[in-house]
């Protein structure tokens, strides 16, 4: 974790969520409902989670959660619970005892423990496995128990460290949907670490993208997708065409492409999503669009849609996503809305 | 896949070894325990006389009980020393872990006999400890009970077997996945609760293995009592040794050996069961 990362404040008070601030350790960010914390491996996302949980100490800076300073508290005093990547269920305890663990160490009464454990197990549909040993369960079942074990303590913030990465693709989709439903039902803020941007897009209310230990951007999935702040974000979240060029006299020029642009003059990078480009329908170029001619290089069919790689001259390749329409070849006219060419920082 | 002939060929040497050097001696010992001695000559006459002697003469039972007491004390002391040491090394030693581990292992390279004599030098009436106590004017005369007592035997055996107890416990602790410890803290348990509820239960197989080492090895020890035990610290192995040596009563010696063997086998059986009960995958 880059502890010297600059701290620009993101202190907008979240409505009905948990405000998590990591000051000076990384940039600040507000957490509301499902905050997805994504980034490449080595970007510091697990470190951030471990800092919030208390398994690691920040070398500098402070961590606050809803007005309470966290980093000075030992992990067992934080109202934060974690779902570990490999679940970390206690092998010597039954499913019921695993879920009861947090209540038992807090000296909760036996009757209350019984009720809350049953409720938590019912929530994750594992009540019939209460007496099983964790080693007898499948990955998905262990995942559910780990979730129940954390949630039974009613934390303010639930940390999930790539909880779905150990599951196969089908089960992952199913658990994603269950997690989302569970979060909506409980209203607990989830801080979910993943390297999978699709998972982040599908599950979260807000995404915090980490890069080399500092925050690249914090925004809702739609916002971060539609308005990536940097070239890195644009490439990491979804596919995009990065157009490098410059703006001269209110005209953006990127290779053979050019269109009117209001931005200040100088070098510029634009992100243009493949689905923002479409076939030009007729000879008229509507106002606010740019038109170009390109030859087809590659065509990748993927069911509902297909991805084209087109050469618009000067060996500049663009990716275009269109709805499936059968084999294509030769040169075509394409068009995109100028508003879809988002200027991004390096 | 290996051929049948190959499998047979490679299994012959170890089987031969076990047969000649383990099973045959045990069979001989077992047979001897039912034979008799007449006027110093061994007679191959099957009887239970040796076992009757063994249990009717209080001296043998007494030594056997003392031996078990000493072995139990050694086990307890080396657990009390070895477990905290292993726990500290595995969880809290940080960068010094490797160095400290080597420091625990190094004494194992020093001859047992040398370490025994070292204790003699320390505990004797002219020894280092007595000299020190007198220098401090804690006592005016040498303290006699230090050497040639069951205490000295327990001390020496504890010193020798603590690394043997330490090793399996350390291995068990090292195998505890650290996320389990983090999970316990995460769920609200402090250090003490985490130790009692997670670390201790998961280290029980190592603890049992270590305890078994200490108990079984102490039970059969005869050098420690010989060096520092004196008359009051005599153990069962010394009795067996004298029966096979000076007393020339091999059958009685064999009968005692069979008894010790039975104690050890039932103990191993028991700990094996317990270890299985406490093993989790």
* Number of individual domains of chain A: 2
Shape of chain B: globular
Fraction of helical residues of chain A: 10-25%
General form of chain A: elongated
**Structural class based on helices, strands and sheet pairing of chain B:** mainly alpha
Number of helices of chain A: 8
H/E series of chain A? EEHEEEHHHEHEHEEHHEEEEEEEEEE
What CATH calls the topology of chain B is MetI-like fold
CATH superfamily of the largest domain in chain A: P-loop containing nucleotide triphosphate hydrolases
What is the number of beta strands of chain A? Answer: 19
The biggest sheet of chain A amounts to: 6 strands, mixed
CATH superfamily of chain B: MetI-like
The computed structural class of chain A is: alpha+beta
Quaternary form: heterodimer
Q: Radius of gyration of chain B from the CA trace?
A: 23 Å
How many distinct beta strands of chain B? 2
Explained architecture:
The complex is a heterodimer of chains A (346) and B (281). Chain A is an alpha+beta fold and 346 residues long. Helix content of chain A is 24%, strand content 31%. Chain A has helices at 45-53, 95-105, 110-123, 139-151, 169-186, 197-203, 221-226, 231-236, and strands at residues 20-23, 34-39, 62-65, 68-69, 80-83, 157-161, 189-194, 206-211, 214-219, 241-248, 251-254, 257-260, 266-272, 277-279, 289-302, 305-311, 317-323, 331-337, 342-344. The longest helix of chain A is centred in the middle third of the chain and has 18 residues, at 169-186. Chain A starts with 19 loop residues before the first strand and ends with a strand. Residues 1-16 and 24-33 of chain A have low confidence and may be disordered. By secondary structure, chain B is an all-alpha fold. Chain B has a single domain (48-277), classed as MetI-like (MetI-like fold, Orthogonal Bundle). In chain B, strands 1-2 form a two-stranded antiparallel ribbon. In chain B, helix 9 (191-219) packs antiparallel against helix 12 (250-277). Chain B is globular, with a radius of gyration of 23 Å. The A-B interface holds A 53-55, 74-77, 80-82, 84-86, 88-92, 101-102, 105-106, 133, 135, 149-150, 153 and B 177, 179-180, 182-190, 193, 197-198, 201-202, 278, 280-281.
């Amino acid at each position: 974790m880059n502890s010297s990362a600059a701290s620009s404040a993101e202190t907008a008070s979240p409505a009905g969520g948990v405000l998590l601030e990591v000051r000076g350790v990384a940039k600040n960010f507000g957490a509301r409902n499902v905050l997805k914390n994504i980034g490449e491996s080595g970007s510091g996302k697990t470190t951030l989670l471990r800092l919030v949980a208390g398994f690691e100490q920040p070398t500098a800076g402070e961590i606050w959660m809803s007005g309470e300073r966290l980093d000075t508290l030992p992990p067992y005093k934080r109202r934060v619970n974690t779902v570990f990547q490999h679940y970390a269920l206690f092998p010597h305890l039954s499913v019921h005892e695993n879920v009861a663990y947090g209540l038992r160490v807090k000296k909760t009464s036996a009757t209350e423990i019984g009720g809350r454990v049953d409720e938590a197990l019912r929530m994750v549909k594992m009540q019939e496995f209460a007496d099983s040993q964790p080693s007898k369960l499948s990955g998905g079942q262990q995942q559910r128990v780990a979730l129940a074990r954390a949630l039974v303590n009613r934390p303010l913030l639930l940390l999930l460290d790539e909880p779905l990465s150990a599951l196969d693709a089908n089960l992952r989709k199913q658990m994603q949907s269950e997690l989302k439903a569970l979060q909506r039902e409980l209203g607990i803020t989830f801080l979910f670490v993943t390297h999978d941007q699709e998972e982040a897009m599908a599950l979260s209310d807000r995404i915090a993208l980490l890069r080399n230990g500092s925050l690249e951007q914090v925004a809702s999935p739609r916002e971060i997708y539609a308005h990536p702040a940097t070239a890195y974000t644009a490439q990491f979240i979804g596919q995009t065409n990065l157009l490098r060029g410059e703006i001269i006299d209110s005209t953006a020029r990127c290779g053979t492409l050019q269109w009117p642009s209001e931005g200040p003059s100088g070098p510029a990078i634009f992100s243009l999503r493949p689905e923002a480009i479409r076939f030009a329908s007729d000879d008229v170029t509507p106002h606010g669009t740019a038109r170009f001619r390109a030859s087809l290089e590659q065509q990748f069919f993927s069911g509902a849609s297909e991805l084209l790689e087109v050469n618009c001259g000067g060996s500049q390749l663009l990716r275009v996503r269109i709805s499936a329409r059968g084999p294509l070849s030769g040169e075509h006219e394409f068009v995109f809305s100028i508003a879809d060419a988002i200027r991004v920082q390096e | 896949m290996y051929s049948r002939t190959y499998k047979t060929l490679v299994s012959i040497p170890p089987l031969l070894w076990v047969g000649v050097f383990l099973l045959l001696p045990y069979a001989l010992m077992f047979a001897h325990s039912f034979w008799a001695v007449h006027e110093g000559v061994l007679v191959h006459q099957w009887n239970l006389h040796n076992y009757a002697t063994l249990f009717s003469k209080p001296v043998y039972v007494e030594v056997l009980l003392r031996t078990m007491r000493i072995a139990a004390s050694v086990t307890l002391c080396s657990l009390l020393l070895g477990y905290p040491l292993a726990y500290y090394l595995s969880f809290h030693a940080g960068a010094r872990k490797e160095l400290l581990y080597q420091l625990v292992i190094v004494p194992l390279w020093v001859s047992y006999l040398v370490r025994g004599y070292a204790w003699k030098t320390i505990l004797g009436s002219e020894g280092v400890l007595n000299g020190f106590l007198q220098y401090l004017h804690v006592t005016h005369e040498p303290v006699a009970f230090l050497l040639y007592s069951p205490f000295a035997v327990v001390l020496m055996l504890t010193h020798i077997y603590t690394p043997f107890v330490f090793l399996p416990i350390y291995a068990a602790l090292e195998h505890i996945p650290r996320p389990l410890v983090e999970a316990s803290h995460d769920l609200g348990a402090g250090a003490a609760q985490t130790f009692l509820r997670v670390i201790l239960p998961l280290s029980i197989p190592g603890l049992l293995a270590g305890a078994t080492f200490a108990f079984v090895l102490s039970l059969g020890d005869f050098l420690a009592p010989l060096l520092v035990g004196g008359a009051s610290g005599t153990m069962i192995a010394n009795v067996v040794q004298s029966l096979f040596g000076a007393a020339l009563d091999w059958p009685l010696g064999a009968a005692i050996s069979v008894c010790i063997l039975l104690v050890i086998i039932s103990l191993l059986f028991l700990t094996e069961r317990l270890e299985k009960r406490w093993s989790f995958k």
